[in-house]
Amino acid sequence: SAVISQKPSRDICQRGTSLTIQCQVDSQVTMMFWYRQQPGQSLTLIATANQGSEATYESGFVIDKFPISRPNLTFSTLTVSNMSPEDSSIYLCSVELAGVNTGELFFGEGSRLTVL
Amino acid sequence: GQQVMQIPQYQHVQEGEDFTTYCNSSTTLSNIQWYKQRPGGHPVFLIQLVKSGEVKKQKRLTFQFGEAKKNSSLHITATQTTDVGTYFCAGGNAGKSTFGDGTTLTVKP
Predict the structure, then answer these.
(1) B62: left (phi over 0), alpha (psi -120 to 50) or beta
(2) Which of A73, A5, A61 is nearest to A35 (CA)?
(3) B36 has a pLDDT exceeding 90
(4) What dihedral do alpha carbons A41, A100, B2, B35 form, nearest 10°?
(5) Is B42–A48 a contact, with Cβ atoms under 8 angstroms apart?
């Protein structure tokens, strides 16, 4: 199992500003991912956070809008830049644990972002 | 890109009735995972299926992976109020998981 701490848990932001979400894991992980989940919708993968190198972004997501850092194995940040109301969503950090071969993704509690 | 479709979108059942959600992928999968998300919560892993035709059970839950590894189902026998939530399948390929749209289950006591 893993404990994933995500901060902030929620925030209300003004249009045009940026917000950085932090994800800290208490276990060794192999993969870290960032997902977006709009209310009542499915989870959409934004990017894979790679340690010490640029994140791998999915179609429709770009580094300028969603810069990601992963300075070590257990910590990552996602920034939502130049926010608009369309960015209002829940952002979830997810990890695969080292040494666990079940395919399980562990999720943080999520960061609920509202953009006015 | 890979698409994973899930039906039905919603299911309302009386407590004690059975429930099934179906998942279909546009491409052959390496594996499929199932998650449950309670209202206001985050997704929690239930199981992963890897082999063609695989069937796994967890108490009242039965999971199946199709022979062609493109579809899967989750069946709950005799639902309870604690089963409420949204059930997602996630198709695994090339190290990434693509989530289906989910089936939201409500159970009337």
Answers:
(1) beta
(2) A61
(3) yes
(4) -30
(5) no
- Residue A91 pLDDT > 80: yes
pLDDT above 90 coverage of chain A, percent: 78
pLDDT in tens, A5-19: 999 999 999 999 999
B100 touches chain A (CB under 8 A): yes
- What is each CA distance from A108 to A96, B33, B36, in whole angstroms? 12, 18, 14
Which pLDDT score, from 0 to 100, does residue A98 have?
A: 78
B22 part of contact set with chain A, CB < 8 Å = no
Is B48–A104 a contact, with Cβ atoms under 8 angstroms apart?
Answer: yes
CA distance A112 to A14: 14
DSSP A85: G
Burial of B23 (0-12, 13-18, 19+ CB in 10 A): buried
- A102 contacts B35 by C-beta, under 8 angstroms: no
Q: Is the dihedral of CA A40, A58, A53, B95 positive or negative?
A: positive
Say what the pLDDT of residue B1 is: 73
Using the beta-carbon criterion (under 8 Å), do A106 and B45 form an inter-chain contact? yes
User: Mean pLDDT across the stretch B18-25?
Assistant: 97
CB contacts, 8 Å: B30 with chain A: none
